[in-house]
Amino acid sequence: MDFAFTVCDQAAGEVCPAWPGQPVTAHWGLPDPALVEDEVGQRQAFRDTLRALESRIKVFVALPVDSLDRISLKRRVDAIGRMRPDSAEDRAS
Q1: Are 4 and 25 in contact (CB under 8 A)?
Q2: Contact status, residue 4 vs residue 16, Cβ threshold 8 Å
Q3: Which pTM was predicted?
Q4: Which stretches of the chain score pLDDT less than 70?
Q5: Are the C-beta atoms of 79 and 62 separated by less than 8 Å?
Q6: Residue 40: what pLDDT?
Q7: How would you classify residue 22: left for phi > 0, otherwise alpha for psi between -120 and 50, otherwise beta?
Q8: 28: CB partners within 8 A, 6+ apart
Q9: H/E segment holding residue 8
Q10: 3-state secondary structure labels for all residues of 15-83
Q11: Which of 70, 86, 77, 90 lies closest to 5, judged by CA?
C-alpha cells in the first residue's frame, strides 16, 4: 500500500491503524452527508461530497509522484486535503 486517506471529519483526531508498507497518509476530511436529516439536503450533500472527492482525486493522480521525495509528497497530499470542496480547479502546491 502506497497511500492511505481518511475522509471522515471525525477521523482527524483519531489514531490511524498500522497500514502495510508504510504508506503516505493524509486526512481529506469532509462532512458526513449521511448526517443531513432532510432527504433533499442529504442528496445534495452526497453530490457535494462526491464532487469534492472527484476534484481531490484528479489533483492527486496528476501529481508527479516519481519526482517527489516522501516529505514533498506528504506535503502535497496534505494540501489536497485542505482544498475547499467547491474548488474543483484548485491545484495543491
Answers
A1: yes
A2: yes
A3: 0.81
A4: 10-14, 16, 85-93
A5: no
A6: 96
A7: left
A8: 5, 6, 7, 53, 56, 80, 81
A9: strand 3-8
A10: CCCCCCCCCEEEEEEECCHHHCCCHHHHHHHHHHHHHHHHHHHHHHHCCCHHHCCHHHHHHHHHHHHCC
A11: 77
Other C-beta atoms lying within 10 Å of the C-beta of residue 55: 19
- The Cα 80–Cα 78 span in angstroms is 5
Q: Which residue has the cell 470542496?
A: 85
User: What per-residue confidence (pLDDT) applies to 90?
Assistant: 46
Q: How far apart are CA 19 and CA 48, in angstroms?
A: 29
Closest Cα to residue 32, out of 12, 57, 61? 12
The answer to whether 28 touches 80, Cβ cutoff 8 Å, is: yes
